[in-house]
């Protein structure tokens, strides 16, 4: 089949194929990606938070809510730990399985292998494809460890931080600097004890937080993803934030930032790959014949020649 043509005709198998191309860095993917750029008007929502905080269950609820209005949704579940773990991702797929047969929902898991940690450039490329395919909403779920939270904020229009009443959850988020990148905070598992206290603490802390772009006030909401309680309010808050971005001309800079992230990922990957394969030049640095900068310049130049 002509994948590109089928893709633009809305064939989901073509989308799946194209995503695989992009994920494995195949040249066919590059061409399609170029054609796909700038199409679509998806809202990109990042969900981040510790493993087990309920991101997948919450995403499932959000999908249900947008589907009720007849809007379509795609989910990218990113596992930054390893391409081989699969465990968490399998759980995610099962949790969202009730949407399995729904033509308006597309779920894809990706390992963020190859990147220096965090969200891989391939993920951002996948976003571009999903957007061009015409989904109204794209939810990106990342296991929130370290760099991935910060990365997600750079690519998502709205970043939702999912916390729980569990002791230490919010403290962890503070330490990791995640609090600063959250546009909306959901205290999930509000059926468990300690919820009201953590909400109070978060609201107090946010009062003293540095101001956000164009005066956005980060809302703290409560959800019980297992029953669906709070889903409508969470979706409303996400839409409020999107409207805020729109009104203040902040959406376009996000898209540019997304592209910047992609370019940076390519540079990183090129650098890592070529340095691994170049014993000679690296040895020249060890013996002082070349400076690291000289060796790096040669490596990158060579990699670029091969790449184009
Ligand atoms: N009690 C309770 N359990 C929840 C809630 N939301 C999710 N869970 C459970 O928490 C576990 C982890 O949820 P999951 O969505 O996989 O978390 P993720 O790792 O952040 O994606 C699952 O067993 C869910 O059923 C909630 O609001 N209350
Ligand atoms: Mg999950």
Task: Please give a structural write-up.
This protein is globular. The protein has three domains: 36 residues, no CATH class; 210 residues, P-loop containing nucleotide triphosphate hydrolases (Rossmann fold, 3-Layer(aba) Sandwich); 47 residues, no CATH class. A seven-stranded parallel β-sheet has the order 3-2-4-1-5-6-7, sandwiched between helices. By secondary structure, it is α/β, with parallel strands linked by helices. 40% of the residues are buried. Magnesium ion binds next to helix 4 and helix 5.
Termini Cα gap: 26 Å
Low-pLDDT segments, ≥5 res:
82-88
What is the CATH-assigned architecture of the largest domain?
A: 3-Layer(aba) Sandwich
Mean pLDDT figure: 85
Could you give me the name of the CATH homologous superfamily of the largest domain? P-loop containing nucleotide triphosphate hydrolases
Largest sheet: 7 strands, parallel
How helix-rich are the residues, as a percent range? 40-55%
Order of helices and strands, N to C? HHHEHEHEHEHEHEHEHHHH
Overall geometry: globular
User: In angstroms, what is the radius of gyration?
Assistant: 21 Å
CATH top level class name of the largest domain: Alpha Beta
Domains, number: 3
Number of strand elements: 7
Report the CATH topology name of the largest domain.
Answer: Rossmann fold
Short description:
It is built from 13 helices and seven strands. The chain has 308 residues and is α/β, with parallel strands linked by helices. The chain has three domains: 1-36, no CATH class; 40-249, Rossmann fold (3-Layer(aba) Sandwich), CATH 3.40.50.300; 261-307, no CATH class.
